[in-house]
């Protein structure tokens, strides 16, 4: 057996870390970052295009961005028209920029009879079909009231074409899982009379199904597509422009200056920079690649193992989707489904987001102490004041965005002024470094490139939202949601009664155990769904199916929505399809599955906190029955629980922990997060022997 140092690290560990440090990964170039992002994120896997189609698609993307920028500032069009135009642009562009195979391409197709202008005939066919069928409903809008329930042959044909186009567009942009789910739901609607037990229903004809999905606001043109076209597109565009003007780099530099000097500095920089970058970007993989290209090599250089360095970045970057004010697309979906102001959603998100980053930070810190890792030296650190003095202007658009949001204006109005501020910063940046004539061209190029890229990044989420409309439409048409509520609650209730019959003491009630088992089942389904489909689509499906289950058990709607949202996000770091962790492992040169498992462990805060705010809604601040004592109890319990669990996982507190100490801390962690004063006191009593030994050990170290 290898010798062990005072910190509990074996000599073999030290030799391994030295070897890894000596061969640490170098920082990635921009092209390498883009290639890595495309490898793991099918949503940005754009194919190279022949020049005519490239110019045409770039112009269409720019026009789409200009359309949304104008409507955000000067008024949204009639609902169906606005959604139809957005969907038509999106489908046309998807069939241009995403290949049929879905695999990365290095060269564009050559122009030929089968590939006019370098685009295969099948892509031209889908492109035209998608555009025409999307615009058909807005075109007949004035007659729509007379056609719903009595569609013509042309209505059904166009609806069929759009459904097929959506299935194919989503498959290209995201793969098979979401289209497969949509096909299953449509099959359920068509063959309901053949379903078993409580799931049986009369069944719908293809005509009635298309009528519901295509001609009503309960399907493809429903709320999900409306939110993407009205809110999300604008914030995606803002995030791209804010990154282009240097706000993301400013966040990384400031995080380095503030956190880099402490033990395990680069890992703490990763956590802090990801939290800051998450405020403008909701993409886990993009955040991982952007910050990880800098932080992962630095973590490896100071002694972190490669898989751990990758896991830290992945766990931190997934927090971007839960960090206000952008929160990916979900914050804007919540305001529509819950019918509450955006400020309510953002307020509710603050404490849980903090808990996630706090949990990652605690494990990072304990791992650094266990391994005896250093922070960055003064020479390796940027000067915070110098960094801010140089690039302070890049913060201006974010300040404007938040100020307009807090003023009570609409989210798209806030995005309009945020985008306008980004353009203003581009003007200042170009004028201060270039002659006036060149500066104008530079601004025009920056705006064009930013608008094109922002529109490109919105394509996949639009297709997903429209296709999820099919799933939601089937739920409303068949009433399957109510049947699932009954099945799940009955199952959970049966388990609860069995447990209470087995336990000799009255520790739980049937109601609380039923809710607990329902939450566990819901969490598992959310994670499994998230392994194949993106967070936005996962959230939309789960609120249609799972949120009513939690509501039936007395959980407030906003709490139920946050619960399914958090567990959907967790899928990005949950093997076997932990895409953010796999992207980070690609940068680190680490075992991807090992990195995914470690990233899941580092995300324990995100695992525990949803259960806390279900049983103690005061954690979300804006819920009914909020009181400061309950809030303080929930926050302190969650922080103590996360700290205890972090120590149990790391095997280190102020000194290496023994097996029995880790077990006591794990048990106390679960009790700490229970929002009850008695259980909190019991948890404190359980971990007291561990704390006493830790304090004695710390005193011995200080006296040596």
Secondary structure topology:
Blueprint: H1 11-22, H2 30-40, H3 51-74, H4 79-97, H5 121-139, H6 144-147, H7 153-174, H8 177-190, H9 206-215, H10 223-244, H11 247-259, H12 265-277, H13 284-302, H14 306-318, H15 330-338, H16 342-371, H17 384-391, H18 396-406, H19 411-433, H20 436-478, H21 480-502, H22 510-530, H23 535-545, H24 547-552, H25 557-569, H26 579-588, H27 592-602, H28 604-615, H29 628-650, H30 659-672, H31 677-703
Helix pairs in contact: 2-13, 2-26, 3-4, 3-10, 3-19, 3-20, 4-5, 4-10, 4-20, 5-7, 7-8, 7-9, 7-20, 8-20, 10-15, 10-19, 10-20, 11-12, 11-17, 12-13, 12-14, 12-16, 13-14, 13-26, 14-26, 14-27, 16-28, 16-29, 18-19, 19-20, 20-23, 21-22, 22-25, 23-25, 25-28, 26-27, 28-29, 29-30, 30-31
Supply the key terms.
704 residues, 31 helices, 72% helix, 0% strand, globular
Instruction: Please state roughly what percent of the residues sit in beta strands, choosing from under 5%, 5-15%, 15-25%, 25-35%, 35-45% or over 45%.
Output: under 5%
Radius of gyration, taken over Cα atoms and rounded to an integer in Å: 26 Å
Tell how many strands the DSSP assignment holds.
0
| Distance between the ends | 27 Å
InterPro entries: DctM, TRAP_DctM-Dct_fused
Function: Part of the tripartite ATP-independent periplasmic (TRAP) transport system.
Protein name: TRAP transporter permease
Organism: Ahrensia kielensis
């Amino acid at each position: 057996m290898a010798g062990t140092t005072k910190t509990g690290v074996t000599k073999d560990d030290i030799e391994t870390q030295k070897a890894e440090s000596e061969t640490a990964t170098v920082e990635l170039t921009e092209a390498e970052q883009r290639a890595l992002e495309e490898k793991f994120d099918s949503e940005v896997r754009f194919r190279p295009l022949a020049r005519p189609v490239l110019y045409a698609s770039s112009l269409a993307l720019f026009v789409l961005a200009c359309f949304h920028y104008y409507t955000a500032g000067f008024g949204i069009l009639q609902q169906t028209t606005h959604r139809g135009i957005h969907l038509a642009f999106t489908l046309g562009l998807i069939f241009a920029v995403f290949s049929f195979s879905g695999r990365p391409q290095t060269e564009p197709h050559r122009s030929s009879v089968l590939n006019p202008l370098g685009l295969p005939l099948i892509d031209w066919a889908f492109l035209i079909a998608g555009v025409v069928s999307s615009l058909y409903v807005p075109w007949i809008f004035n007659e729509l009231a007379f056609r719903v329930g009595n569609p013509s042959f042309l209505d059904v044909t166009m609806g069929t074409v759009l459904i097929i186009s959506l299935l194919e567009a989503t498959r290209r942009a995201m793969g098979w899982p979401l289209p497969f789910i949509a096909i299953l739901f449509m099959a359920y609607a068509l063959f309901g009379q053949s379903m078993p037990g409580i799931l049986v229903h009369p069944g719908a004809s293809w005509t009635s199904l298309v009528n519901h999905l295509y001609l009503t606001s309960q399907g493809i043109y429903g709320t999900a597509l409306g939110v993407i076209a009205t809110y999300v597109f604008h914030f995606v565009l803002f995030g791209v422009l804010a990154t282009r003007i240097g706000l993301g780099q400013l966040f990384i530099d400031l995080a380095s200056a503030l956190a880099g000097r402490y033990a395990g500095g680069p890992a703490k920089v990763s956590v802090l920079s990801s939290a800051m970058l998450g405020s403008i970007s909701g993409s886990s993989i993009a955040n991982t690649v952007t910050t990880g290209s800098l932080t992962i090599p630095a973590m490896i250089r100071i002694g972190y193992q490669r898989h751990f360095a990758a896991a830290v970045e992945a766990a931190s970057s997934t927090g971007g989707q839960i960090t206000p004010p952008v929160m990916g697309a979900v914050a804007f979906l919540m305001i529509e489904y819950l019918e509450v102001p955006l400020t309510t959603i953002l307020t509710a998100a603050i404490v849980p987001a903090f808990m996630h980053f706090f949990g990652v930070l605690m494990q990072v810190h304990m791992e650094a102490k266990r391994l005896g890792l250093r922070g960055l030296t003064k020479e390796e650190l940027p000067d915070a004041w110098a960094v801010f003095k140089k690039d302070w202007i890049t913060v201006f658009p974010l300040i404007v965005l938040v100020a307009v949001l807090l003023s009570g204006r609409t989210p798209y109005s806030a995005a309009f002024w945020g985008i306008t501020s980004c353009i203003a910063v581009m003007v200042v940046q170009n004028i201060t470094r270039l002659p006036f004539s060149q500066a104008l061209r530079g601004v025009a190029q920056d705006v064009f490139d930013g608008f094109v890229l922002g529109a490109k990044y919105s394509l996949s989420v639009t297709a997903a939202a429209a296709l999820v409309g099919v799933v939601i439409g089937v739920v409303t048409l068949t009433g399957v949601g109510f049947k699932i509520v009954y099945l799940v609650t009955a199952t959970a209730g049966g388990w609860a009664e069995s447990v209470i019959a087995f336990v000799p003491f009255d520790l739980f009630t049937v109601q609380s155990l039923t809710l607990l088992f329902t939450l566990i089942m819901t969490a598992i389904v959310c994670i499994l769904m998230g392994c194949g489909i993106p967070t936005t689509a996962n959230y939309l499906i789960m609120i249609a199916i799972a949120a009513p289950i939690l509501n039936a058990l007395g959980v407030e709607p906003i709490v139920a929505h946050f619960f399914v949202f958090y567990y959907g996000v967790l899928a990005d770091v949950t093997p076997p399809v932990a895409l953010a962790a796999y992207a980070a492992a690609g940068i680190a040169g680490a075992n991807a599955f090992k990195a995914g498992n470690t990233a899941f462990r580092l995300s324990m805060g995100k695992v525990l906190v949803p259960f806390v705010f279900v049983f103690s809604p005061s954690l979300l601040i804006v819920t009914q029955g909020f009181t400061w004592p309950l809030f303080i109890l929930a926050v302190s319990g969650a922080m103590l629980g996360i700290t205890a669990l972090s120590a149990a996982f790391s095997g280190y507190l102020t000194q290496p922990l023994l097996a029995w100490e880790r077990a006591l801390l794990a048990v106390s962690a679960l009790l700490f997060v229970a929002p009850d004063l008695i259980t909190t006191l019991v948890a404190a009593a359980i971990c007291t022997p561990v704390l006493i030994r830790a304090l004695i050990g710390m005193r011995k170290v200080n006296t040596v």
